[in-house]
Amino acid sequence: MEYRQITEGSTTFAAPVQDQNTAFPPGTAPVFYNTRMELNRDMTVLLLSCISPENYLDAMAATGVRGLRIAHETGTPAIINDRDPLAVAIIEKNAKTIGGNIRVTCDDANRLMCTERFDAIDLDPFGTPAPFLDAASRAAKRYLFVTATDTAPLCGAHLKAGMRRYFATPKNTEYHAEIGLRIMMGTIAKELIKYDRGMEPILSFAKNHYFRSHVRILGRVTAAETTMNHIGFVMQCPKCLYRTEQKGSLLPQTHICPYCGAETEAIGPLWMGPLQDKPIIASLLEKLPAMQLGTAKQMDKLLHQLLAEPETCTFYDYHIISRNLRVSPPPIDEMITDLTNLGYPTVRTHFAVTGIKTTAPLHIIEEWILSW
Ligand code: SAM
Question: How far is CA 333 from CA 155, 310, 317, 327, in A?
């Protein structure tokens, strides 16, 4: 196999050369390496440089880039695993070159997580993390980090696949990106709760073709109960843009849209608690300039957005509201300033370029757009 040397962050490692005729999709390489996931990996490197877990399992490692970077750039002891012997040969070669506290294993991730516990576990599968969440919920002592790339099932575009994998009903709304992230996080919460454990999200976001969440695990029944209270439903009117949030119940309560009288439809169950630990996000922003990270500029923008977003579970697309009102979209910055001055914190959201996260109810946003 032919290799090329790649540097991400301050770590240089070898990855197999892709066949030039099949350079895309990235899964066509003999061992998977996707440059489009660099920001995803950079974020975890930055986070681990702040929270310093005792050890870190990269459960599905491919070239090992994630675990290698964690060991090399944060000094965290890393266990790097893949079930593919070809991948493991590459990881071993890379681990030897890089040095540091690294153990390489060739095992099925579920089997490994059933035989050993780790302070932090990272799941980065092809597609859905659902088949790995049960074992990870028991094997992770303090931290669990999860990526999902099956955005179509999570967002409601492939409804039945989403229901099967996540035991939740998504819906393809204009805020589907947030729904997808929250359904994934709701599934993580449910897996932990059944073992009388709870979770507190530290850093969660949606980007391009994936969702990513880093959560802290709390091993107490009371924490499981608190976590349960953060599970709920978004109730969406099928006829207009009105929606409301119902928390703390596994059964959606019938709710009638106050604008058009239609019965709202339940989206969920999903995670309705905070997506971020904001003091940690603030400390990541402070630490970022001192780190050598290839996507630092994008990270800075994203972290500022995550810090500013109010904890609502949905967002509005102001182009869609304007279209429904048959008017041109207003200048977004003016709208944000005015709604905020009216007492409704409003910001752009990282979920969509024409999205605004606001505590303002729909009729206030509509009135403002019409008066502009
Ligand atoms: N984490 C890598 C990175 O950042 O570049 C990418 C991982 S790739 C998306 C998924 C990897 O999971 C593949 O290398 C595949 O061999 C491995 N894999 C799939 N199922 C597995 C299982 N049950 N146990 C262990 N590894 C598995």
Answer: 28, 17, 14, 17
Peptide bond connecting 129 to the previous residue in cis, omega within 30 degrees of 0 = no
The CATH label, of 3.40.718.10, 3.30.56.70, 3.90.1150.10, 1.20.140.10, for the domain at 316-371 is 3.30.56.70
Write down the CATH number for the domain with range 3-308: 3.40.50.150
Q: What is the ipTM of this complex?
A: 0.99
Question: What count of Cα atoms within 13 Å lies in the side-chain half-sphere of residue 58?
Answer: 29
Q: Is the CB of 195 under 6 A from ligand 1?
A: no
Q: Whose CA is nearest to atom 4 of ligand 1?
A: 66
Q: Which of 57, 83, 132 to mutate to test the pocket of ligand 1 (most atoms within 8 A of CB)?
A: 83
By C-alpha distance, which of 110, 104, 98 is closest to 74?
98
Cβ distance 322 to 280 under 8 Å? no
> Range(s) for CATH 3.40.50.150 in the chain?
3-308
Choose among 198, 144, 148, 195: nearest CA to 168: 148
Domain span(s) for CATH 3.30.56.70 in the chain: 316-371
Q: Tell me: the pLDDT tens digits for 17-76?
A: 876 555 555 555 678 999 999 999 999 999 999 999 999 999 999 999 999 999 999 999
338 lines ligand 1 (CB under 6 A): no
